[in-house]
Design goal:
With 176 residues, the chain is α+β, with helices and mostly antiparallel strands. 56% of the residues lie in helices and 16% in strands. Strand 4 and strand 5 form a beta hairpin.
């Protein structure tokens, strides 16, 4: 992957908005961005833009270069995109995600879980939680009240294994 693609991907992980990040990189002349110009072009509130820039800075993907007076009593803040940090940031995030998936796989292999029958994203309860709540009637989703059904362990493990394999390939490509 080219450096520009890596930084776009890394910044998109933080901002969760690929198109926004592409515009930021496009607006950056030699990697330097003036905050007010960025705010105007992206049509973001000052607060939203600063929160995003500070989150990027916390991951070392942008560096605040400083500020200077604009002549009207305000300040112009300048930021530089840190392209050198993109690869290590992505590797770190991928490895953390892989560890979380491996932990989740072990958890699913060692226990029995139930999900909302209407929408599995509503709730995921362990067998112990289901037993604790059985006195209140049949186990239902705490979000919508639908019945809870057992998770298909084999299917979940298969999905987790495919995600781990994909992450391993991505790590190999970044390290290679």
């Amino acid at each position: 992957m080219r450096d520009e693609e890596l930084i776009i991907l890394a910044l998109a992980v933080i901002s969760r908005d690929l198109e926004l990040v592409r515009r930021i990189v496009e607006l950056a002349n030699n990697g330097v961005i003036e905050e007010g110009e960025l705010q105007q072009n992206l049509k973001l509130s000052v607060t939203d833009l600063r929160v995003m820039l500070y989150r990027m800075q916390d991951s070392n993907l942008v560096i605040q270069l400083g500020a200077k007076e604009d002549g009207n009593g305000g300040y112009l803040s300048y930021w530089r995109i840190n392209k050198d940090a993109a690869r290590s940031f992505l590797l770190r995030r991928l490895k953390n995600t892989k560890n979380e998936l491996m932990r989740r796989k072990e958890e699913d292999l060692s226990g029995e879980y139930y999900v909302c029958a209407a929408d599995p994203s509503h709730a995921r309860l362990s067998f112990d939680d289901i037993i604790r709540n059985i006195g209140e009637g049949s186990p239902t989703c705490p979000v919508c009240g639908a019945m809870m059904e057992p998770v298909n362990k084999e299917e979940v493990i298969k999905i987790i294994d495919s995600l781990i394999e994909l992450i391993d390939r991505a790590i190999e490509a970044l390290e290679g």
